[in-house]
Amino acid sequence: MTLIEPAADRHSTALAPDLRSLPERAARAWTERMAVRPRAGSTYAVTTESDSTYLVDIAQHSCSCPDNRIRGEHCKHLRRVAIEITARRVAPPGKERAICDACGTVTFVAADARTPHLCRNCRLETGDVVRDRETGDRLVVVDVTDTPAAEWIIEATGETVADYDTNGGYPVDDLVVLATYLSEAVRATDPREYAFPLSRLRRVEDAELVAP
Ligand SMILES: [Zn+2]
Ligand SMILES: [Zn+2]
Q1: Domain presence at residue 164
Q2: Residues with CB under 5 A from ligand 1 (ion)
């Protein structure tokens, strides 16, 4: 079986446009030094090179600068906030910057999201079909816990998930995922749940599900 790893940062790059082809305001949105900080709701504080701070509301398409307020222009501050969100350097409205508990990359989670915080590559949800990297078996995720593999005791054997025989190759601080075997899940009314280190399981994409 060949494991195809997801591209590490397929959603985290943005290419700068050809600045010569942009109108002046748009070009300045890319090139000027500005600090963008998320505020409440859909608002962002943008501090410019000349140390002025303006309040941008990305949902309202408004900015407190004269360019927007008085002249009604789609100002460079508004554009810059959109650029920073698209490039995933600042959190989109309603989200917060967080570190993925599984792989350590920066991700954005709902402001009130419960732990664990997982990035898009690592995120598994109840009902996801996954493949065991060790055996190739397909399973259904029952729960993603926030307990590390080193602290989860397997009842049947009394050892931790991290110490379990075939889990040696996975980080001891991997979060424990509970899953049932797909073959059992469709047959049994009360299928048994097994505990896995998160990175041992790989989400099966929809296209793979229809393949044998
Ligand atoms: Zn502005
Ligand atoms: Zn991750």
Answers
A1: yes
A2: 54, 63, 65, 68, 75, 77
Question: 24-31 and 76-86 are packed helices; what angle lies between their axes, rounded to 10 degrees?
Answer: 50
Range of the domain at 36: 19-86
Inside any domain, residue 66: yes
Pair 110, 157 in one domain: no
Distance CA 112, CA 22 (A): 39
Of all ligands present, the nearest one to the C-alpha of 69 is 1
Query: What is the total count of domains within the chain?
Result: 3
13 domain residue, yes or no: no
pLDDT in tens, the chain (212 residues): 444 444 444 444 445 677 788 888 888 888 899 999 999 889 999 999 999 999 999 999 999 999 999 988 889 999 999 999 988 889 999 888 888 888 888 888 887 777 788 888 888 889 999 999 999 999 999 999 999 999 999 988 999 999 999 999 999 989 999 999 988 877 878 889 999 999 999 988 776 666 55
Query: Do 205 and 147 fall into the same domain?
Result: yes
Nearest ligand, measured from the Cα of 32: 1
CA 33 to the chain's CA centroid = 27
**Sequence-ordered list of residues with C-beta below 8 angstroms from that of 158, at least 6 positions apart, any chain:** none
